[in-house]
Structure formats: C-alpha cells, structure tokens
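Much of what follows relies on a compact textual record of a protein's fold. A record is reproduced here so that you can trace the correspondence yourselves:
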Amino acid sequence: MEVFGTIEDYGHEQIIFCSDKKSGLRAIIGIHNTALGPALGGTRMWKYNSDAEAIEDVLRLSRGMTYKAAVAGLNLGGGKAVIIGDSHKDKTEALFRAYGRAVESVGGRYITAEDVGTTVRDMEWIHMETNFVTGVGGAGGSGDPSPFTAFGTYHGIKACAKVRFGSDSLNGKKIAVQGAGSVASHLVEHLCKEGAKVWVSDIYEDKAKALCAKFGAEFLPSDEIIAADCDIFSPNALGATINDDSIPQLKCSIVAGAANNQLKEEIKHAKMLRERDIMYAPDYVINAGGLMNVASEIDGYRRDKVLTQAEGIYSILLSIFRMSAERSILTIEASNAIAEERINAIRHIHGNYIGRPNINR
C-alpha cells in the first residue's frame, strides 16, 4: 500500500498512528474532514489480518463519517479509529487508558465513541485520560448509541418501503437481517413488533438463535442469508457485504441496514444494484442515529431531541430518493452530493477545525 497516495485519494487531513508496547496498544486515528467541526466517530477494535487492512478500514470509515454528519445536518466532521486486537481477549484498562492519552494528544480535533468491538466500559476507561470521548455512562453521558442507530435505521427502512411499495408499513414484509450484534438486536425488536417476518444470521450462531427466540424471528445460517427470498435485505454486521459475489445472489427489492461501508466498491456496486432494480439506502445516512446520539453530548445531552433527529432519517432518505429520481443518478451519488454541497458551502468560513470543543456532561 502506498500510504500517502491512498490518504490523498480519500482526501484525509490527518492520520495518527498510536503505539504503546507495554499495554499492547496499536491504533490508527483517521481524521477525514473538519470543515463543519471536530471529527467525531467511534473506535473499532478488530483483529485485522494486516496493518494495511486496518489502514484501509479506518480511511473508508472516517470518510463515511464526514458524509454522515454533513447529511444529518450536524456541525461535526468525520473521523474514525481502529485498535488492532481481539476484542474478546485483548482488552485491558491499561490499553484503553493509553489510547485515551493518544486521543487527548490530538487536542480535540477528534472525539471518539463506541463502535464494533468496544463498549461503554471501554469509553469510561478512555474518559479517565481525556474528555474527548462520548457514549460514556453516568450523568450527562449518552451511554450505548446502538438503540438510536437501530431506531434511525428502522425509520429509514420504513422510508424505503414507502417509496418502493407505496406504504411504509412493514407488517407482513419479509426482512433478512445480517448480524445479531447490539444494533441488529434493537432493529429486530422494532421490525418484529411491527409484524414483519424476520430472518436473522450471524457468524456467532448462538447470538442469532438467542435473538430469534427472544423476538420470534427465524434463524438462517450465515451462508444462506444473502440469498434469502425477501422484500428487504438488511446488512448490520461488517462492511463490504454488497460485492461482486453477493449482488447476483440477492432476491430482494431493497438493501437497507446499519452496517458501515456496505458497498465494497461504492459506485460500481451501487450501479450493479440499480441494474437489478434493487433500491439502496446509503448506509451512512440510514445509520446516522448513533452519531446523532453521541453528538448530543457536546451541547448537553437530550434524549428526546435525539429520538426526534433519528426519526427524521425517514425524511432525509425521502429527499435523497427524490433527488436520485429527478437527476437520474444513483442514491449514493445523491447523498454524496447533498453532503458535499453543505461542506463546500461552509468550508470557506471554517477551514480545518483547530479548536477544543466543550463536551458538557
């Protein structure tokens, strides 16, 4: 990997490599764009196969956060971080406190939060070393953002159904949910309560089966979920699941889920979905509820405000689908255009963010 060439291709402002041999910390912070404000995005802990794979992931994820914040109307930039390690085996207080010191050293240009492989407990360890962290527990903290990600995704799915089927009711709709983690669990609850027929898969089958038993969904093995005969396929695990191999297998009318970077190659695979007459809900739009939740801490947390914002993802997606139809462009191109127009309109006022935000708790 040509590191600087890759960074330039993605348009990043800054990449920070963090290392602490004694605690075992190996982390990468990606700051993509701070024209709208400080970069806010979660820290993912994952056992990557190589350093290059970790770099690629943080670049893609942090770029997505820029667009997510812009489309959601938040005064935030895009950032993301990864800690290289096994979240089931390698977590220690020392590791997360060392990482907290690294976040503190960035001086407020990056604010972290939960992501895949990290929890509220981990954020509290980070908070021992820095105030530039959201999603912590206690007074003024927003806690686990996954219920809000799921709530926004649920309303986004309803918006997709409204456009594709003429009604936003999900009663009786067949929905295949890939993933049984925190976000997927809350999403499955919403879908089942509305009367949808839901299938669930996960690489950890026991988690998927327990989720199905709890809410009355049906289990499918991971290698069968992509080809499930359904109305809506909902990716809620890791990214790049919509690719050359999976798209020909899809038997759905809509792809709408909370996973980040669902399209392995953004434009190529969005075009392939359109050629198969499958509606695609841009992932960074439909899953913005979690970001809205942790962002609320910066100005003083209000749960009712966050729920209203997350419900508004319904209207944001309707505007994207309308622009896509009017301009004859892909839905991902429409959402990118909305984000870029907002960023470019404000960039000349702010430039790059250099201040220190005050996170109220």
